């Protein structure tokens, strides 16, 4: 039995009768009762615990669906496989409604981690600190924008003289943030690759970087990296929880965080996008 199969057997209570690698970190395992689970391997300390806690916190809202978590050990996570199907306008509207309900399930504070989740978590391969704060502009600047800006400068991905435009935006966040909103329960890494259109006609979300945040951040990330039937998703969302006036003009402010994360992980092209959205937000 492989180490992966041994983990699956422990966490599901079923023997493994077959394995199929999907990537270096992912594999499918077929259980002896015919069910198929996905096994995720991560060497990042605490990553499996953070992802499992995030999935369970999202599931507890009773709105957007996520794969069932069978369990985790240090470095391993086992969840149900999602059988995928084609995106549809109907599923998109329902997803928008469910996403609004997820956000409305709330969080104790901006930066609050999921219950049983570590304060030191991850967004993709980047470390992400969850330290609860009452004030969104201050929290967003200090925990979501400036840490990644500093890393990008240290790497040379953002030049030292360019950082000032992002720093000015952070100073102006109280004016740029729009009306105050309560902390929402966020997926936190809501790009299209983490939105699975399931064969049953409903959406499943995977790979969260869940935390308490501003609901416009999840929507901005959907727009940043593209999402099938995005306008129908937004229509469904607004039916349940209309967004504050001017939210479209704030999209760049919320995209700054994922863009800087991508600049740290993937290089200069994302740094240029981050600088461009900062300049646009300041000139608006």
Helix and strand arrangement:
Layout: H1 3-12, E1 16-21, E2 26-31, E3 36-41, H2 47-60, E4 69-73, E5 76-80, H3 89-104, E6 120-123, E7 126-129, H4 136-155, H5 163-171, H6 173-176, E8 184-186, E9 195-197, E10 203-205, E11 211-213, H7 215-225, H8 230-240, H9 251-266, H10 268-283
Antiparallel strand pairs: 1-2, 2-3, 3-5, 4-5, 6-7, 8-11, 9-10
Helix pairs in contact: 3-8, 4-5, 4-9, 5-10, 7-9, 9-10
How much helicity do the residues have? 40-55%
The averaged pLDDT comes out at 96
Assign the structural class, choosing from mainly alpha, mainly beta, alpha/beta, alpha+beta, or little secondary structure: alpha+beta
Give the radius of gyration.
Answer: 19 Å
Low-confidence stretches: none
- Termini separation (Å)? 60 Å
Overall shape: globular
Strand runs, count: 11
SSE ordering: HEEEHEEHEEHHHEEEEHHHH
Separate helix tally:
10
Order the strands across the largest sheet as they lie in space: 1-2-3-5-4
**What portion of the residues fall into strands of 2 or more residues?**
15-25%
The biggest beta sheet reads: 5 strands, antiparallel
């Amino acid at each position: 039995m492989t180490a992966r199969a041994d983990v699956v057997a422990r966490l599901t209570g079923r023997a493994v009768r077959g394995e199929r690698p999907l990537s270096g970190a992912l594999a499918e395992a077929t259980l002896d009762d015919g069910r198929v689970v996905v096994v995720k391997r991560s060497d990042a300390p605490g990553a499996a615990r953070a992802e499992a806690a995030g999935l369970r916190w999202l599931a507890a809202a009773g709105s957007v669906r996520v794969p069932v978590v069978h369990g985790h050990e240090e470095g391993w996570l086992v969840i149900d496989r999602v059988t995928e199907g084609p995106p549809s306008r109907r599923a998109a509207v329902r997803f928008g409604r469910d996403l609004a309900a997820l956000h409305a399930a709330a969080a104790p504070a901006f930066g609050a981690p999921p219950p049983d989740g570590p304060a030191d978590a991850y967004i993709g391969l980047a470390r992400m600190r969850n330290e609860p704060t009452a004030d969104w502009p201050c929290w967003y600047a200090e925990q979501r924008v400036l840490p990644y800006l500093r890393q990008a400068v240290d790497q040379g991905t953002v030049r030292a003289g360019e950082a000032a435009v992002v720093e000015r935006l952070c100073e102006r966040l109280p004016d740029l943030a729009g009306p105050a909103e309560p902390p929402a329960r966020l997926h936190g890494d809501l790009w299209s690759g983490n939105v699975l259109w399931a064969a049953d006609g409903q959406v499943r979300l995977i790979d969260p970087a869940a935390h308490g945040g501003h609901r416009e951040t999840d929507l901005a990330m959907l727009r940043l990296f593209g999402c099938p039937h995005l306008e129908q998703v937004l229509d469904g969302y607004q039916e349940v929880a209309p967004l504050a006036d001017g939210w479209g003009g704030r999209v760049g402010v919320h995209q700054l965080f994922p863009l800087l994360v991508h600049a740290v992980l993937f290089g200069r092209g994302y740094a240029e996008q981050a600088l461009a959205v900062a300049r646009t937000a300041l000139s608006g």
